Amino acid sequence: MIILSILQCILYLLIIPFSLGTIFSSQFDEKYNTVGNTLVFGFISELAVFQVLFLLFYKLDRTLTELTWVSSVILVLTSLFFLILFIVRKGYKKIKLPKFDLGFGVFALFTVYMIVMRNLQGVNDGDDAFVIGNALTTYTNDVFYKVDYYTGFTIASNSFKRHLLASNPLFIAYLAKVTFIHPAILAHRILGSFYLLLHNAVIYNISMLLFDKEKIKYRSLFASFVSLLTIWDFHSYLTDSTFILSRTWQGKAMFCALGIPLAILLLLMIGECKGKNNMLFAAAVVLAVSCIAMTPASIYLLTLFFVAGCICVAFAVKKVLVVIKALPMALSMAIIAGLYILYLK
Amino acid sequence: MLESGLNPLEIIKLYSGNTTFMLMFALSLMYLWVFEKDKVKKAVLVILSVTMLVLFVFPLFSHFFMDKMDEAGTYYRFLWLLPTSIVSGYAVFHILDRFKNRFVRTGAFAVVVICVLIGGVFMYESPAFYDSTNAYQIPQCVVDMCDDMIITEREYEAVFPDEILQYPRQYTTYITMPYGFEMLQFGQGQNDDIHSEMVKDTLNVKQLALLCEGKHIHYIVINNNKTLDGRFEDYNYEFVGVYGDYSMYKSTTMFFDSWDKFEEWKEKNGQS
């Protein structure tokens, strides 16, 4: 059973995301076709697919088992298709691994340190009563928001509706179902470690955009320095670093660890290609949908950040088209905001 | 969640603690504003950050989100949109690159790292962290309590003190509770009467036991720091054991076995 769980974790957290990610990274500029970008963009695609299916299955009053089957079939078949495409096109020859030097070793040590601490330390945080409690309740009862995750009785208040669109706890329940791992272990240990790995991959990929040509030598040092700042940023319990390192598996922390850094990465890439690469805007739409799964607050936070960022980039590269191309992302958020109002009624 | 009534500047102050990193971020923004030549990097890292910061403190904007959208408690999340670590890190290496002498550059970097270590606050000193003793990362006493409560695979109702209210249903759904974490989060919930008894410094044992028996609660968990004004044993609850800082009591009148043995139990106990 343990071996099966490990294999399923590899499938759902590495193989599927990587295969899905190849469709994005293969369209990026050659130098950004990296393992990190592939895995991260693939993972947010997986989350976005789950988010869309969850909204549908919730509205149709279906069960977690049914959602698990449909999600799994769609994800496995899609990723298989992309994987075959990747092999046929010999994408493995083009994909880039990070440059392994002393600097990268230091950065890898920081990443390992964060992951080790995540596994050694528990966190006393009340929001887990919702996140893990909801995941376990859904996993056990097989229904969405029918049983009160706090008490175990029939859900009595409508307070859950403010979280309804953020499917992260249900995503944990879904992964628990396919990996046969208790949601608390899965979230606290496996997903916590995995998200820290992805976060650091995004930071490293940002360093690739910030430091090129003769400044390449600073990449790993920059990434290590950002990790150092993150680890020493407990200035209050409100900082993004506090969320990233203490409640990594919770949606808000995922938004800090993946959502915002990925938006920065996309904006830098859009600026570099002067908005010509349409795949970057498609990735922004996927990022938007996946961020909804993390927190409903991303409806206004990410939209504001990304659209304002595109306006800044448009001025920088003198291309109004950049702003126009950002509209599908804003529109997808507007549709989700509309759904939110509809579901709340 | 933050208390409402704070203005954006007060939120920034609360957010940034001793302000070292926020100061570093502000200096980095100023430096990059002047010296960054790459327009895209300047737009994304500097102009966008300044825009977000200006919006955050802009009265109409903050009024809209804090009052109209009722997000006063979570308004601080806009500060997440400031990429403080990335901007500060980029500025540091931008400055270091200006030093042509390798030794001077290494020395300057060492000084910056020391400043970060002194000015920063180590994350793992946060009181929120505790040493994890099991795979679930749930306090061991809660895991032990729940394991002992579940006699057979069915649901049992238990009442817990506020400090551990969030944990049992992260571990198992076989434990149900008359009130849950919503009582702490929203300040209200079901069975407020039991909760108001549970939070008293001196517990009225008779009142609590009667309330719990009336609501068909199988187990009562009490913080050992509380003073009891009686014995649970006198009110149909027996002592089970001590689990860390907590004591557990079990009903002596309720049915604990699997449901297929319920009829047999009913006949044996003469209940109709």
Written account of the structure:
Chain A is an all-alpha fold. Chain A has one domain. Chain A contains 14 helices and one strand, in the order H-H-H-H-H-E-H-H-H-H-H-H-H-H-H. In chain A, helix 2 (35-59) crosses helix 8 (183-210) and helix 11 packs parallel to helix 13. The radius of gyration of chain A is 20 Å and the shape is globular. With 272 residues, chain B is of the alpha/beta class. Chain B folds into two domains: 8-125, no CATH class; 140-264, Rossmann fold, CATH 3.40.50. Helices cover 47% and strands 11% of the residues of chain B. A five-stranded mixed β-sheet of chain B has the order 3-2-5-8-7. A two-stranded parallel ribbon of chain B has the order 4-6. In chain B, helix 8 (168-171) links the parallel strand 2 (156-159) and strand 3 (175-176). In chain B, helix 2 (20-35) crosses helix 5. Strand 1 (121-123) of chain A pairs antiparallel with strand 1 of chain B, so a sheet runs across the interface.
- Unreliable runs of chain B, pLDDT <50, ≥5 residues? none
The backbone outline of chain A, from C-alpha atoms, is globular
- The secondary structure category of chain B is alpha/beta
Task: Tell me the count of domains of chain B.
Answer: 2
Number of self-contained structural domains of chain A: 1
Largest interface: chains, residues each: A-B, 83 and 86 residues
Over all CA atoms, what is the radius of gyration of chain B?
A: 28 Å
**Biggest β-sheet description of chain A:** none
Secondary-structure element sequence of chain B? HHHHHHEHEHEHHEHEEEEH
Instruction: Examine the coordinates and then state which fold CATH places here, giving the name of the CATH topology of the largest domain in chain B.
Output: Rossmann fold
Spatial extent as radius of gyration of chain A: 20 Å
Range of strand content of chain B: 5-15%
Choose one word for the global shape of chain B: elongated
